[in-house]
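Section 3.1: Structural characterization of target chains.
Under the original work plan, the team committed to producing a structural model for every single-chain target entering the pipeline before any wet-lab resources were allocated. The record below documents one such target. The sequence was received from the expression subgroup and is listed exactly as submitted; it comprises 249 residues.
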Amino acid sequence: MINLKNIFITSLVLLIGCSSNTKNNDNQTETGSEDSVGIIGDAIGPTHINGDTGTASVDTASVDTGTADTASADTGTVDTDSGSSIHGGNPAPVTWTDCNQWPGSHPCDFSLVDQYGDTFTLYDNYDTVMVLDFSTMWCIVCKNIAPLVQPHQDTYGPRGFLWVTVLIEDSTGNDPDETDIQAWATAYGIVDSPVLAGNRADFVDLTGMDGYPITAWPTLVVIDRGMVLTNGLNGWNEDTIMGWVEDAL
């Protein structure tokens, strides 16, 4: 039997993504290109962790090293009458303690507050196909993807699908807060899809054990109905991601 933890998809995909190098929180300057085009790395898999150093590698072609712009977000308010009706309600029959963030495994559970002030818990969405979209507010590509979230949710939602946006950094490279996720949801018309405030400490771990092996922004993973992480991509390719969703549905 093929071990998915050792062998995974190796075909390269042409992607557009942002470097995982982030703003320096002391002076708010970029240490990497925000706008990169090239081979950002193929699907997430153990082969993308350098065995010698334990660090992940990513091949980016720098295009613009200017300062990152802030999210072109309307800071209007979100209708707080919605909320948990868009997620949860179907807890997993098992709480997996043997978990990690590699394809073929059960991802570890987490809980975060969404744009409506409700708690999103991963394992409460069992039997739902999910995309976890790890983005930052300063990443241009992430902002280009954001307007696609609600249309994809409208298309696939009735079939048991949920797009989950996890913002890892705000526009200045710090942890996002409730105001940030509300602004993001409002600016990009995200109504029926949770937008969550995450952080690097809890969600980025290149070993894939205590977080996700994120080497570029955005990073997206697909979780199937059985709460198994089936595929992941450092970067963005709409056909690839939505193809994986179709397969899971």
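Residues 140-156 form the longest helix (17 residues).
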